[in-house]
Amino acid sequence: MKDNFGFVRVAAAVPMMRVADCAFNVQEVKKQITEAIEEGVEVICFPELTVTGYTCADLFFTQRLQQNTLVGLEDICSFTRGKSIIVLVGAPLKVDNNLYNCAFVMTDGDVVGVVPKVNLPNTGEFYEKRWFTSGRAAMQHSAEGLIPRHPTIELWCGDIPFGPDLLFMTRNYCFGIEICEDLWSPLPPSTQLAIQGAEIIFNLSSSNCVTGKHAFRRQMITQQSARVHCGYVYTSSGVGESSSDIVFSGSTYIAENGELLAEGDRFQHSSSMIIQEIDVERLRIDRQRNTNFTKDQRGGYRKVNVAPIENEACYSEPIHRTFSPTPFLPDAAQSESFSADAFAIQCNGLAHRWEHTQAQTMVIGISGGLDSTLALLVAVQTADLLGYDRQRIVGVTMPGFGTSDRTYQNAIRLMKLLGIQQKEIDIREQVTRHLEDIGHSGEKDITYENAQARIRTLILMDLANQMNGLVLGTGDMSELALGWMTYAGDQISMYGINAGIPKTMVRFQIRYAATYLFGEEIAAILLDIIDTPISPELLPTSEDGQIVQFTEDKIGPYELHDFFMYHFLRYGFTTEKVTYMAAIAFEDTYSEEEIQHWIGVFRHRFYTQQFKRSCMPDGPKVIGISLSPRGDWRMPSDVNEMPGE
Questions:
Q1: Are residues 293 and 194 in the same domain?
Q2: Which terminus of the chain faces fewer neighbouring Cβ atoms within 10 Å, N or C?
């Protein structure tokens, strides 16, 4: 990969260790550093008090352990010389008469900074205040606020920045450090570190294991990464720690903005490591959009430049990260609640509009396709919610030149089984007469197709006037993005119920309805509708009545377009980055050439069709993004494609 696209490859490592055996521990650390370099890791994080072990207790006070610690640190530091990696390793350090629990940042044979732990646990099984001094003692008050008491400390490699106020700046990203209990405190240092610019937080921990703690710790890490829009890399001591009274499991996590990217196996009896990429570009975009994410000018944080030797393996294929081919959809564990919420949002939005307008009826064009089916299901649920007779829903089927028997029969049967009022108006004669009136040649061109869509809309609008009703629009969010709708045809309605639902989610919602909301007979129809090829059915069918016009042959696969739309609208990623991600997500489905072609189609249609979205009707926002000009997306209708796109 020529560009890293903002991905930073990180590792959370748990070395096998022996309590107070610094030489053994250092050798294990060096082995894992070598392994990480081979994997192209840019930053590797080791547990709290890596060199000595966490459970040394009063041995921390002994001269021999302190001397061996410094020897071990110097050995690790020397080992990094000429190597393309940043190493974060934990060790105790005496400064003046105080002993601090510290994280050492090393690269290319140098220590570039030392961060002391701020919050020391001293309850239950923890006695850290017996041995260590809080990192707060390294700071003092002044007229300018808190400043370091010891801006630098002298180590074997010179004067080194020291304090909890350090931010580490590389060429491509900024990171900060907190240690174990810091995360569990009411005001974690990572919050202020992130506000001051840290995009990735590394936590060197030695948290022990008790029942229930693992799930809570995982939740706390993902929540903190979401709260401050950061990547969070966490590693803790493994089973080699003393088990006199407590047991350690070697928990490792890598999270990003509320999402757990990787989690290691616990209770490993050998060294272990997890590797993943954090997308700092994604984090920056969310921070830009969060207007409350403002740098606090009161607290001065020192910036330490870190310049590791570049490793070409950091930018090589393949990356460890995967990307969901259906980013709008939830994972299996959340699918039921996700779909229920989506239906609830659509139904309650429509219910309020229905009550507010005091409309007698809800008029819907029913084609037997995906979008009108979902709109009908929502309308039926809304009528039930309001206690209305389902006969107040008027379903209108309007057979045209391209209507297939399959979609027609599904539309008729579905309306009948749902118990709504049915109307059928054949538009073929009306369209033919209209085309003759305007002197159309009869060619199967865009005019031929759009005339059908506009006449259908005219019928629905006039029926709604006649029946004191509202026309419920059926077009979905993917069609809005692509402009795949007829202006002043299916582009308009009195309420666009599916405007916040992308095409991949339309299928998902109908399948949910078939599984949980309706009986077997209706479910069978819904499943057949899902399996029907997507088509506007505007061109005449084949001699045996089969669909000949397939939408995805013309504009491309909706699953690709939804992927493009999500990453473009949600994060504003470049075409190159989205193409790269799509090639990973659809590795076994589409070639890179196909992806490049269809993203070009998406880009062109998205920019040229904004005028249709600028005057789109009201409709509920359902997922995290929207194309409504009154909601998430505002763009000039006559904007050009941006250079470089």
A1: yes
A2: N
Cis peptide bond prior to 318, omega within 30° of 0: yes
**Inter-residue contact 550 to 420 (CB < 8 Å):** no
Query: Which of the 8 DSSP states describes residue 229?
Result: T
pLDDT at 299: 58
d(CA 629, CA 627) in angstroms, rounded, equals 6
The reply to whether 83 belongs to the active site is no
Instruction: Say which of 42, 48, 263, 479 is annotated catalytic.
Output: 48
Would you say 522 and 511 are in contact if contact means Cβ atoms under 8 Å apart? no
Mean pLDDT, range 421-438, rounded to an integer: 97
Answer with the one of 315, 349, 381 that is the final residue of a domain.
Answer: 315
**Residue in 83, 117, 503, 612 annotated catalytic:** 117
CB atoms inside a 10 Å sphere around CB 579: 17
Residues 198/167, Cβ–Cβ less than 8 Å: yes
Q: Phi then psi for 15, rounded to 5 degrees? A: -80, 150
Whether 314 shows a pLDDT value over 80: the answer reads no
| 48 part of the active site | yes
| Same structural domain, 279 and 345 | no
CATH code for the domain in which residue 41 is found: 3.60.110.10
Identify whether 645 is a catalytic site residue.
no
The alpha-carbon radius of gyration of the chain (Å, integer) is 31
State whether 311 and 340 are in the same domain: no
Domain-embedded: residue 546:
no
If one counts the domains in the chain, the total is 2
Task: Sheet with 7-14: list strands edge to edge.
Answer: 110-116, 98-107, 86-95, 43-45, 7-14, 272-279
320 domain-assigned: no
Share of the chain above pLDDT 90, in %: 82
CA torsion angle 13 19 23 29 (round to 10): 0
Is 644 inside a domain boundary? no
Q: Looking at the structure, tell me whether residues 222 and 265 fall in a common domain.
A: yes
β-strand pairing of 86-95 with 98-107? antiparallel
CB 485 within 8 A of CB 477: no
Per-residue model confidence (pLDDT) at position 578: 97
Same domain, 23 and 97: yes
294 shares its domain with 436: no
Does 448 lie in the same domain as 409?
yes
- pTM for the predicted model, two decimal places: 0.92
pLDDT single digits (tens) 157-179 = 899 999 999 999 999 999 999 99
625 in a domain, yes or no?
no
Q: Which domain holds residue 93?
A: 7-315
Average pLDDT over the chain reads 93
- pLDDT tier at 429, thresholds 50, 70, 90: very high
The CATH number of whichever domain residue 506 belongs to comes to 3.40.50.620
What are 442-452's pLDDT values in tens digits? 899 999 999 99
pLDDT for the residue numbered 296: 63
On whether both 65 and 210 belong to a single domain, the answer is yes
297 pLDDT more than 60: no
